[in-house]
Write a structure and sequence with these properties.
179 residues; mainly alpha; 51% helix; elongated
Length: 179
């Protein structure tokens, strides 16, 4: 189960799920039906069937929590160092423009920590730590807003021309020249 904040189940939720599985194991030993256990524990019958199969193969120990699915490869301290590198900007790392792409972040991680990430792995790492996708405004750094405002006010009306026809119009769209 994934959440928008990143990561999986919290430690409390993981403990709760493990307790459910162990309660089900006690009832497996008593020979109760999967549908009855599912109803009482408020889980799906399919989950209880999976738990029963695991219990048959490995006993109650097989129903214990396995821990988190994966541990982050960058520690908290290393991620703080990565954030400091990202704060310096792409130009400090040799790129001409001021855009961080996943590919560039991947390169910085490789250079700084000697770790290989996939593009999707970099995205998950950043999202898990509260970063989001940002689309830059399409404006040049050298843009002069006053000059643009003057051009729109003075030059554009002359270039645009009048929208009204000069001659008399016609109400007929099929015979525009008719009286």
């Amino acid at each position: 189960m994934r959440y928008p904040q990143g990561g999986g189940l919290t430690a409390e939720r993981q403990q709760f799920r493990e307790e459910l599985r162990l309660k089900a194991a006690e009832r497996f030993a008593q020979g109760e039906a999967s549908s009855l256990i599912a109803k009482d524990l408020r889980v799906s019958v399919r989950s209880v069937q999976r738990w029963r199969q695991m219990w048959d193969e490995g006993g109650p120990r097989a129903l214990r929590s396995q821990g988190p699915a994966s541990l982050p490869r960058l520690s908290e301290k290393q991620f703080a160092q990565l954030e400091a590198e990202l704060a310096k900007g792409p130009a400090a790392h040799g790129w001409e423009d001021q855009r961080w792409t996943l590919s560039r972040v991947k390169t910085v991680i490789g250079r700084r920590f000697h770790l290989t990430y996939t593009i999707q792995g970099v995205r998950k790492l950043l999202v898990r730590n509260g970063w989001s996708c940002q689309v830059p405004a399409r404006r040049a750094i050298e843009r002069d807003d006053e000059a643009v405002a003057g051009w729109v006010k003075e030059v554009w009306p002359c270039a645009e021309g009048s929208r009204r026809p000069v001659g008399p119009g016609s109400s007929s769209r099929t015979k525009p020249g008719s009286p």
